[in-house]
Amino acid sequence: MAVTREDLQAAIDRFPRTELADLPTRLDDCPRFSEALGGKVRVMVKRDDLTGLAFGGNKTRKFDLALGDAVVQGATALITGAASQSNHARQAAAAAARLGMK
Questions:
Q1: Which has the closest alpha carbon to 26: 41, 43, 42, 48?
Q2: Could you tell me the sign of the dihedral formed by the alpha carbons of 84, 51, 59, 61, in that order?
């Protein structure tokens, strides 16, 4: 049995989300890079730096889903581990603050 796009979307929609991320992020054309590659390909960059949380990035997407269930269950704090200067730590702190967690 083939899985349709609608089936996949319905499965994804069952997971609670926090709406931490400003999605979808835009795609920017890179015409000079395309030209440097011979002009036969269109190069675009996905701007996940614009997700809107602590300089953005893929971790915002992760926390949007990972913390959805925590919010539903009434979590009041977020505990995580990472290096002191990591993007993960910065994103986790920003996500927790936005969600009213410690």
A1: 48
A2: positive
27 DSSP β-pair partners: 46
Using only C-alpha atoms, the chain has a radius of gyration, in whole angstroms, of 18
CB 71 within 8 A of CB 58: no
The confidence band for 15, taking pLDDT boundaries of 50, 70 and 90, is very high
**The whole model's pTM is what?**
0.77
Give the SS3 label for residue 27: strand
Catalytic residues: 86
Place of tokens 């926390």: 63
Residues 6 or more apart from 98 whose CB is under 8 A from it?
A: 20, 53
Which helix (H) or strand (E) is 81 found in, with range?
Answer: none
